[in-house]
Design brief:
Layout (H helix, E strand, L loop, with lengths): L3 E8 L10 H16 L8 E5 L3 H5 L4 H8 L7 E4 L5 H15 L5 E8 L7 H5 L14 H16 L3 H15 L13 H6 L2 E3 L2 E2 L8 E10 L11 E10 L14 H14 L8 E3 L5 H10 L8 H6 L16 H4 L7 H14 L12 E8 L4 E8 L4
């Protein structure tokens, strides 16, 4: 197996992009990553695109052909990858495996979702849950994560204010991210007093409906300096699965798929959680941001609220999390999120993150979740090849 490097990244603005089509979004991100990497279209051996539900959101399936065609890259093989909200990181993982195996030398991994073209995105998003035992019984993702939050509060004494702090920190970081959907600060009081969605979660605990795309270019690590002076090296790529239904879990306050994927990733990279300088986690709801702090090993179970309250996850904290603004404030176009996380960590390790830069970042991590934890992926990236 060959070592793999990221040599180019690009992301569109995330938000309600009424004047930009699905195909225009992915072309903008893909062509941006190609330009950033210094390659040409003739160099590309394959493309993988993460997308959850283009059929329900924009009435378009067979998007692999559409994307290759619209980007002018035919006959390059393009493959759609789907794992709910973790689709993007699985596209990244498939690209890494393809390059590492030697099957192709240059691969684009991308993600895209156009969610705002439907009147109500809720039914489409709900397809990532168990239809028979959850969605058809009236459970939505806000209600499922609200149950997790309530149980965590009951078992560990987590407070409503600690949950709100996840959103407050995300918005603080997003004001420095030009790609963010909501680049402005909010207060704890605003979170607590915003419209109730599913008790205890309010509107400002929830990630938004978003449009957007992101892309990265991968190549063998040994060739990376042919294309860029600032390659980012893939140290590990791990994926794990769990039950799709929340009620089948061993412990509904723990995402076991995250814990297993994280352990695999740490072992593969030869690092521990203490070596991670900056992390992008999957905080589709504030409670999931808190769970990620615990399940990735930054603190012991039940202590996530306390370390967030103490500021340890802020950009200048002990273990900075979501300098991009996270899913809550950067935005969450489902299929694009995992790739956008890889873009942010790449910018952080390059030192190109501007006012949201984490000082001295050398090793970064991404954490992407599908559904309520039925799929989880963890990637560890490094500025250093060794």
């Amino acid at each position: 197996m060959r070592d793999v490097a990221i040599i180019g990244v690009a992301q569109t603005k995330f938000g309600e992009l009424w004047d930009t089509s699905f195909r225009e979004l992915i072309a903008e991100a893909g062509l941006g990553a190609i330009k950033d990497s210094g390659i040409s279209g003739d160099d590309i051996g394959a493309m993988y695109v993460g997308n959850m539900s283009s059929g329900l959101f924009v009435d378009q399936e067979h998007i692999a052909s559409l994307i290759s065609d619209h980007m002018g890259l035919n006959p390059v093989p393009c493959t759609r990858v789907e794992a709910a909200c973790a689709s993007g990181s699985l596209a990244l993982r498939q690209g890494i495996i393809t390059v590492a195996s030697g099957y192709e030398d240059i691969v684009i991994s991308a993600g895209v979702e156009k969610m705002t073209d439907v009147v109500d995105a809720t039914p489409a998003i709900a397809t990532a849950s168990d239809q028979e035992w959850e969605a058809q019984q009236g459970a939505t993702f806000p209600s499922l994560y609200a149950m997790i939050a309530r149980r965590h509060m009951y078992e560990y004494g987590t407070t409503r204010e600690q949950l709100a702090e996840v959103s407050v920190i995300n918005h603080h970081n997003a004001q420095y991210n030009p790609y963010a959907q909501f680049p402005f600060e909010i207060s704890t009081e605003k979170v607590l007093n915003s419209s109730k969605v599913a008790d205890p979660l309010t509107l400002l605990d929830c990630s938004p409906v978003s449009d957007g795309a992101a892309a990265v270019v991968l190549c063998p690590a040994e060739d990376a300096h042919k294309y860029t002076d600032t390659p980012i090296y893939v140290k590990s790529s791990a994926q794990s699965s769990d039950s799709i239904a929340l009620h089948d879990r061993r412990d509904m306050t723990t995402l076991d798929a995250t814990k297993v994927a994280a352990k695999k990733a740490y072992d593969m990279a030869g690092v521990t959680v203490k070596d991670i300088d900056v992390t992008e986690v999957h905080d589709c709801f504030s409670i999931n941001g808190l769970l990620a702090v615990e399940d990735l090993g930054f603190t012991e179970k039940g202590n996530g609220g306390k370390v967030i309250e103490d500021g340890q996850t802020r950009i200048d904290g002990d273990f900075p999390i979501n300098p991009s603004g996270g899913l809550k404030a950067r935005g969450h176009p489902l299929g694009a999120t995992g790739i956008a996380q890889a873009c942010e960590i790449s910018w952080q390790l390059r030192g190109d993150a501007g006012k949201r830069q984490v000082d001295g970042a050398e090793i970064g991590m991404t954490h992407n979740v599908g559904g309520t934890g039925g799929t989880a992926t963890v990637h560890i990236l490094s500025r250093d090849k060794n």
